[in-house]
Amino acid sequence: MSAHANVTRSLAELPGRGVKRAVTIGKFDGVHLGHQGVIRSLSALSVSAEVTVVTFDRHPRALLDPTSCPDDLLSVNQKIDALIDAGADRVAVIPFTQDFADLEPEEFSRQVLSEGLDAQLVLVGEDFRYGHEGRGTLDTLRAEGERSGFSVHTVADIVHTGGERISSTRIRSLLSEGKPAEAAELLGRHHRVRSQVVHGHQRGRLLGYPTANLQNPVEGFVPCDGVYATWVHMAGQRFAAATSIGVNPTFGDVTQRMVESHLFAFEGDLYDQVIDVSFVEYIRPMNQFSDADELAAQMDRDAERIKEILS
After folding, report:
1. Using 50, 70 and 90 to split pLDDT, how confident is the model at 3?
2. What is the rounded distance in angstroms from the CA atom of residue 155 to the CA atom of residue 127?
3. CA separation for the pair 219, 196 (Å, rounded)
4. Stretch 95-106: mean pLDDT
5. Beta 90-94 vs 50-56: how paired, if at all?
6. What are the residues facing 41 on neighbouring strands?
7. What is the pTM of this model?
8. Range 191-310: architecture per CATH
9. Any idea where the domains of the chain sit in the sequence?
């Protein structure tokens, strides 16, 4: 996680008064181009105020309506990194507990915006709602701003060049369909997952393709099963890699979906290292092969294609 960040993880940790801040509030699931545009707009409006993003430790629906809650595109730590990369000076992650959900709009504004962050201005979407049962509206927020000394600005949704609204739902759908390149167009970067490397069945080594097996659960939304052209990021270095997702049906003894990457130009021990895997292009589905030799021959073909893509 970004070491230089001003990051808080509770209401009690909010820094309080003394530094004027320009604040935006939202789930920021994915930190896609639309979210990045919000932060750019906030920076343009800030006039030397600290650019501050208020977000949550989970999707609100995880508490309010778990059956309809989507899978996260990013873990909290991934989201913090992406927000800082997008230009945030401070990220305030608030635990979305029942007590927080029950705050009346005026109390939300007082605890978070006025006393918690000394907001000078607040930038939100045109459909912004806040406080208990979403009772807070732009009108109530503007009234609270007049009392507390912050101005309220709105920003419209950002539309992709193809004419569709950029959304986390659409990105999740593209990744589920094996379309990481299309998802990257909406994210402004390749989608990543992150985890620690653990011991696996060692079959890749026997086939000539030793793999880094990611510990479950990984951080970030896992795309659909298949083989991908990927980059693996580790300790400031980047390696071209072939990554497979699935249960390896050729051997039939793995019951949990695994993410495993073969790094083409790496020699050494990866165990216990935390790596990020970024997905560039889908290569093929996870097929079942008649034996290990047939699988190894297909892996040779995959490797050549992936090296060509990443070159």
Report:
1. very low
2. 10
3. 10
4. 97
5. parallel
6. none
7. 0.91
8. Beta Barrel (2.40)
9. 6-155, 191-310
